[in-house]
Amino acid sequence: MLHSSQAKLYHRVSEPNNSTKGRGKLLGPTTIFGFILATLFGAGFHIIMGGDARRLALFLLAGWVGFAAGHLIGVVFGINIFNIGTLRIATASLGAVLALVAAHVLTTDQKNKRSTQ
After folding, report:
1. What is the pLDDT along the chain (117 residues), one digit of tens a residue?
2. What is the DSSP letter of 88?
3. Does some domain include residue 92?
4. In Å, what is the CA distance from 38 to each residue of 1, 10, 79, 113?
5. CA gap 46, 92 in Å, rounded
6. Is 15 part of any domain?
């Protein structure tokens, strides 16, 4: 039998924390892992292609958006090539690479292309 002070303590611990009410859920491990992979894609692409801080921000954003879009395409079409948990790594990686290449092509200086032709 619990003493009344122990019962109050037990009751207090088992109640949900009031500081988290209305804030929503925390991100799951799959979401965090996908965010880390997308960030690595963007940062790696920036290391290979070079550029200033604005291009790094652009490549990070393109990596995140492309990774998310590729994952969603994999979910919608049921592509299960290489999954880690519920994360569709193959389609997400393809989406990230395509978005990064598109960002690079669309932001490349047009003067350099015209002078070589």
Report:
1. 555 555 454 444 445 555 556 567 888 999 999 999 999 999 999 999 988 999 999 999 999 999 999 999 999 999 999 999 999 999 999 999 999 999 999 998 765 555 555
2. E
3. yes
4. 53, 43, 19, 29
5. 18
6. no
